[in-house]
Amino acid sequence: MRLVSEQNPEDWMDLLLPGHSLYSLRGPAHYEFTHKILKDEASFFDGQKIP
To answer: Are the C-beta atoms of 3 and 13 separated by less than 8 Å?
Structure first.
């Protein structure tokens, strides 16, 4: 999962979100960042491919 700042798109963070997970965002993470699940070909975390 990738969070990208709406104010500065150069500020982003990838999070490992295992399949069938539930996540909850609040505060700035919820309101000031976009959240997206990456396409399979772009899905890497810490150098490892995540299917």
So the answer is: yes
Domain count, the chain: 1
Q: Which range, 6-10, 41-45, 46-50, has the best average confidence (pLDDT)?
A: 6-10
Tell me the two tokens of residue 20.
């069938």
Contact present, 15 and 3 (Cβ < 8 Å):
yes
pLDDT at 6 over 90: yes
Q: Find the domain containing 26 and state its range.
A: 2-49
- What's the pLDDT score for residue 26? 93
Q: Residue 29 is which amino acid?
A: A
